[in-house]
Amino acid sequence: MINIAPFVSCKYQPLINFRDGLTINRFIPPRRKDKVVIVIGATGTGKSRLSIDLANHFSAEVVNSDKMQVYKGLDIVTNKVTEEETCGIPHHLLAFVDPNETFTATDFCQHASLAVDSITRKGQLPIIAGGSNSYIKALVNDDIEFKSRYECCFLWIDVKLELLQRFVSERVDKMVKDGLVEEAREFFNPDGDYTSGIRRAIGVPEMDEYFRNEDKLINEDALDEMLQRAIENIKTNTCKLACCQRENILRLERQLGWNINRLDATEAFEKKGGESHQAWRRLVSEPSARFVHYFLGE
Ligand code: ATP
């Protein structure tokens, strides 16, 4: 019997021919990896908007990768996409975890893998979108199972930092008008801390001093000053977050050698109304769609 199995490379699988006992090799083509699109970017850059634009174009479903939006509650504070904004596109891993639980990067990998698998089985394209770069790194770089099954196309929406920081500060004012204070009050616990669950979200710890004092008989002006200080701190911390997230993306690109397609959305943020929409289409959604078409081999 000639056994040539020791010469088998990973692309070949030994096959025993039972008639003459000969071991022969059968060529097994490498398993084609399924494809996943990943939308990253700092807070406020428009990741949800782009993922919905792409989902409408490619028949896709969205998997959230924002570590605060996985929790139930604080929809305004964490800036969750509204039912109307989803345009009927299924969104996974959004508002499904108890606000007091701690949801880890490992939990994210497990849930995201299941969601991506179920989307792929339906013949749809999975789009993972969110700002938590540590979750993306854990899934794409550290999860061997995910790495072996999927090929990823990264889309990074970038906006000039000064402009983005102005935008996110104005967004905080809008959140306050929409009910940020009332939402955060529901999570105020004078005996609790801000180290686990949804209470870590920017917008909750900053309100602590104000909530501790609002029932006390202190003068209205002093209380209002506390509120204004809290709002300013929310703005400052959101601006810091945007800066850190941008630096983290640059680090991932440099250290892990990811091939990230950068889309500069600055002009869409500089312009207003229709001109802003046109710039978004020209600079973000259309080039992204081209990247994805190419990635899918279409
Ligand atoms: P890090 O390792 O710094 O936590 P990360 O990539 O894992 O980075 P980020 O998404 O950048 O996570 O979140 C960092 C912190 O910013 C969170 O712990 C939370 O305090 C705050 N944060 C993030 N996303 C939101 C959000 N949508 N709403 C409010 N706060 C947020």
Description:
47% of the residues lie in helices and 15% in strands. With 298 residues, the protein is α/β, with parallel strands linked by helices. The chain has three domains: 1-30, no CATH class; 34-160 and 259-295, P-loop containing nucleotide triphosphate hydrolases (Rossmann fold, 3-Layer(aba) Sandwich); 165-236, Orthogonal Bundle (Helix Hairpins), CATH 1.10.287. Strand 1 and strand 2 (22-27) form a beta hairpin. Helix 5 (161-178) packs across helix 8. The radius of gyration is 24 Å and the shape is globular. The model is unreliable at 1-15 (pLDDT under 50). Residues 66-69, 77-79, 131-134, 200-203, 241, 245, 248 line the site of adenosine-5'-triphosphate.
| Series of H and E elements | EEEHEEHEHHEHHHHEHH
Number of strands: 8
- What fold name stands as the CATH topology of the largest domain? Rossmann fold
Low-pLDDT residue spans = 1-15
CATH architecture classification of the largest domain: 3-Layer(aba) Sandwich
Task: Report, as a whole number of angstroms, the end-to-end distance.
Answer: 48 Å
Which ligands does the model contain, each kind named once? Answer: adenosine-5'-triphosphate
> What structural category arises from helix and sheet content?
alpha/beta
Q: CATH superfamily assignment of the largest domain?
A: P-loop containing nucleotide triphosphate hydrolases
Helix content: 40-55%
Number of discrete helical segments: 10
- The figure for the number of domains is 3
Q: Strand count, sense and closure of the main sheet?
A: 6 strands, parallel
Mean pLDDT: 92
> Nearest-angstrom radius of gyration?
24 Å
